[in-house]
Amino acid sequence: MPFMSQNPPELRPDLAPRAHISDAPRHGQPTIGMVSLGCPKALVDSERILTRLRAEGYGISPDYTGADAVIVNTCGFLDSAKAESLEAIGEALTENGKVIVTGCLGADPEYITGIHPRVLAVTGPHQYEQVLDAVHSAVPPDPDPFVDLLPASGVSLTPRHYSYLKISEGCNHKCKFCIIPDMRGKLLSRPAFAVMREAEKLVESGVKELLVISQDTSAYGLDRQHGSERGHRSHIVDLARDLGSLGAWVRLHYVYPYPFVRDLIPLMADGLVLPYLDIPFQHAHPATLKRMARPAAAERTLDRIAEWRSICPEITLRSTFIVGYPGETEDEFQTLLDWMDEAQLDRVGCFQYENVDGARSNALPDHVADEVKQDRWDRFMAKAQAISEAKLDAKVGQRMDVIVDDIDADGIATCRTKADAPEIDGNLFIDEGTENLSVGDIVRVEVDEAGEYDLWGVLTT
Known about the structure:
There is one protein chain. Helix content is about 30%, strand content about 20%. The chain is α/β, with parallel strands linked by helices. Helix 11 runs parallel beside helix 12. It is globular, with a radius of gyration of 22 Å. It is an enzyme of class 2 (transferase).
């Protein structure tokens, strides 16, 4: 029985985890399959679509042959991601035949139908109603009101103990290499009270970790003039404080290094939110950043990093970078390596620059040869790996809390520390004494071994 495609983990450093589908449809229930590609924000869109479908009486199938139709939620971020999406659509057509396409790549329906004319419908990102209409046409609903009960927390595609919490859609930046604003529009923040209501339901249903995501988390509420409604202010600092009051781990992703981000760091030092910032620096040379049209300058970021660490010494900093951007010289790349030596970031991902249809960076002069991109990527990752290895080695002997993500048949527990986001960062492994552990437990360990990206530990008190 062929299971549906998922993101290959090596494609990009910002992919969502593999979707977990565990529904068991009742006999005769119409069922829909979901292939969810791309970033965590797309995974949240997939969850919302499936939640609506479950409310209408549809079952969710984890494989092609058990589904009456398949939705492919696509990614259009890079040409390689587009190729992956087209391949997934083709696979779904071959294995099932009834395919509805949505997501970022769906913003250009002619591109998809020109290659796969048999798809039933193509919709763009967060066009939930159009997706539902297409499903209704392909597979009419047949609800049983006595059986088809929707969980209060909706349908989740992540393990039960953590969940993504999308706080806004769209982006107001105009980075030359990115077409996300063209596909997903300008910043549109959810009301803070609605975010809190969703978060409360998730925590009540057993979620231990909330992963806050958006295109630009720092800008949350700007389009709402940071107004208050029903007792909650739409500002990232206020929202982080409110979320921290729920008792779950709160992890912040995609935070731009604006000056007021400093106001988040005391919340981390006080334990209200995890001491973890995911900040897309992208480069360190001022000229490169200017060609990228990035909203931050490199000189100030080092000062801010030093300030953040002075307030919260245990803070973990994760970032992504682009090497081989058009016009990047060897001197500019060396500046990035030198910046890495000084910044000492804990977690790092890296892209080799790719042209993307519609991106303004395509028209820049002096594109970098593929072999030079590869060489710079290798050198950058060697630097990042050495920094990671040294930082993890310094943790040997420390005691820390970890959350249990999985326990295999041999009793080895795969866990994460507060410094590790699901799928994109490292793990901590416990290989003995795990008989009484369950997935989702938060336990105390002492680190006794370190590798390049992972830790090993023993249970302690």
